[in-house]
Automatic annotation (TrEMBL):
Keywords: Signal
Gene3D superfamilies: Glycosidases, Oligo-1,6-glucosidase, Domain 2
Catalytic activity: Hydrolysis of terminal, non-reducing (1->4)-linked alpha-D-glucose residues with release of alpha-D-glucose
Protein name stated in the entry: alpha-glucosidase
InterPro entries to which the protein is assigned, alphabetical: GH (IPR017853), GH13_cat_dom (IPR006047), O16G_dom_2 (IPR045857)
One of the Pfam families matching this protein, by short name: Alpha-amylase
Biological process according to GO: carbohydrate metabolic process
Origin species: Bactrocera dorsalis (Oriental fruit fly)
GO molecular function, one term: alpha-1,4-glucosidase activity
Glycosyl hydrolase family 13 catalytic domain segment(s): 14-433
């Protein structure tokens, strides 16, 4: 028995549906493919899986541009396929988390089309503005100098409506007007729809971008230049003081939390949780959880480790861990550790293969929830494929098909080609092969998810239940303890040199339960009261 709620100490796994498993040979992953691989998730110790968007979409931003929020994209399958997937997941004890994109829709969404035509109530469903007249040229210009995340102006002129609309992302992704009560109603209806189909939680997309500054007279302030680049078209040309992290943002999370809690009260079952995506400071994220008056998301994602590069050191890991723990653990007793995702270079490429294994160990030994991006559990690397089609994305290298085995298309698809090419390293780097290698990345991941269950439920939240520290520039240590159990200790050497440690403890002999890379074997005794050696990149 434990009082730990499922989301607090989950082993969370992100699936990018296009690239996980293709069941029908069209070269694009789908829901039936995912369903067929749920036993794999179970096998490797995953407890909850988050699916990037699976809704009807023209795929300008690979599903983050939604046409219909309650319809399955035909490429991915049908509603029956979805129901079967949820049923299978629940049978296996896995939670299903859907991506929820409330900041914007596709411009092909019916609501945007109605808004263009100013139809019944949809007039201000999106953010429209006449723009300004430039006093020098007499020409019409956008309402403000804002640039979109993917560069270029964040305002696009619509001929039909004869107004500009605002889009933080692509011009094919118009922002909802979250000041409109009707938008709120629609969004709640979408959540309800999926809850009724058994969904356990939502990953909320792009929270820092919910609101933009707007004066009472309806005008929008210009952003000040950041001084970071001379390219006036670049997103980084400006500081985003009016387009990011506005004080209204968390109010929406508070509203949804009330709704989700009420839903649980009425329908029973486990907590319907919210995971929030936000590249924001811990003080901002803290208010997302609880600002003293309201409660919001349970789990704002911690992207600190996503900033690690091949210069990663134990000291750096400590600073990044402290940054989170000093605020989020101290105030709320929550933590999560995202090591990779679909918007960032893969850990094996970004941090290096061996250090990526070390980060897997650390992310699972720290208290809280671990978040692993599909393929990172086998150490998949970025693959720079030549871009031969229209909607190539700068993030394609980290989105290539899952490498299941050494057969055609890495076992991902029986088709002639795949939507992105399979990484050429698939014959040696795949699930099937790593199953048979004792210290493979996959087996390290599996061992850690198992160990995480043991240590998390025994010492989670208990006073003195854990500590972590950089013992030196390169050696990171985590200790997990609880009354009447063994002590677990992680030692990780981030450096390319052998390191030694003298007299770490005067206690007893310890045993190696897991080792990433060294002559140490499972079950070996180590006497930590004496000098011990760590090989380069050994954890
Ligand atoms: O990303 C939101 C977000 O904050 C992005 O700006 C992110 O920093 C960027 O993609 C990094 O390159 C979410 C999704 O994760 C992303 O895939 C979508 O493109 C975006 O929303 C728009 O919906």
């Amino acid at each position: 028995a434990s009082d730990v709620d499922w989301w607090e100490s989950a082993t969370l796994y992100q699936i990018y549906p296009r690239s996980f498993m293709d069941s029908d040979g069209d070269g694009v992953g789908d829901l039936n493919g995912i369903t067929s691989r749920l036993p794999f998730l179970k096998e490797i110790g995953v407890t909850a899986t988050w699916l990037s968007p699976i809704y009807e979409s023209p795929m300008a931003d690979m599903g983050y541009d939604i046409i219909n929020f309650t319809k399955i994209e035909p490429l991915f399958g049908t509603m029956e396929d979805f129901d079967a997937m949820v049923a299978k997941a629940h049978e296996l004890g896995l939670k299903i988390i859907l991506d929820f994109v409330p900041n914007h829709s596709s411009d092909e969404c019916e609501w945007f089309q109605k808004s263009i035509r100013r139809e019944d109530g949809y007039d201000d469903f999106y953010i429209w503005d006449d723009g300004k007249i430039d006093p020098q040229t007499g020409e019409r210009v956008p309402p403000s100098n804002w640039n979109s995340e993917f560069n270029g102006p964040a305002w696009t002129w619509n001929e039909q409506r004869q107004q500009y609309y605002f889009h933080w992302f692509l011009s094919k992704q118009p922002d909802f007007n979250l000041r409109s009560p009707m938008v709120h109603q629609h969004l709640i209806e979408i959540m309800k729809f999926w809850l009724e189909r058994g969904v356990d939680a939502f990953r909320i997309d792009a929270v820092p971008h919910f609101f933009e500054k707007r004066f009472d007279n309806g005008t929008y302030p210009d952003e000040p230049p950041s001084g970071m680049t001379n390219d006036t078209n670049s997103n980084r040309y400006y500081d985003h003081i009016y387009t990011k992290d506005q004080p209204e943002n968390p109010t929406i999370l508070y509203e949804w939390r009330e709704f989700l809690d009420e839903y649980q009260r009425q329908h029973g079952g486990d907590t319907r949780a919210m995971v929030a995506e936000a590249y924001a400071s811990v003080n901002i994220l803290s208010d997302y959880i609880n600002n003293g008056t309201h409660v919001g998301t349970q789990l704002p994602m911690n992207f600190n480790f996503v900033f690690l590069r091949n210069t990663a050191s134990a000291r750096m890991v400590q600073l990044l861990a402290d940054n989170w723990m000093n605020v989020m653990w101290t105030k709320h007793k929550v933590a999560n550790w995202v090591v990779g995702n679909h918007d960032n270079s893969r850990p094996a490429t970004r941090i290096g293969e061996q250090r990526a294994d070390m980060m897997t160990i650390i992310a699972h030994a720290m208290p809280g929830t671990s978040v692993t991006y599909y393929g990172d559990e086998i150490g998949m690397t970025d693959y720079d494929a030549e871009c031969t089609w229209a909607s190539c994305d700068f993030r394609d290298p980290e989105r290539t098909p899952m490498q299941w085995d050494s057969t055609t298309n890495a076992g991902f698809s029986k088709g002639n080609s795949t939507w992105l090419p399979v990484n050429s390293n698939y014959k040696t780097l795949n699930v099937q092969r790593q199953r048979g290698i004792a210290r493979s990345t996959l087996n390290i991941y599996k061992a850690m998810t198992a160990l995480k269950k043991t240590i998390a439920f025994k010492s989670f939240k208990e006073e003195g239940g854990f500590s972590y520290e950089a013992l030196s520039e390169q050696v990171f240590q985590i200790i997990r303890t609880a009354p009447n159990i063994e002590e677990y200790r992680v030692l990780a050497n981030f450096g390319g040199q052998m390191e030694y440690l003298d007299g770490l403890t005067n206690k007893t002999m310890e045993y190696v339960v897991l080792n990433s890379y060294s002559p140490h074997r499972y079950g070996d005794k180590v006497d930590l009261s004496k000098r011990i050696y760590l090989m380069p990149y050994e954890a």
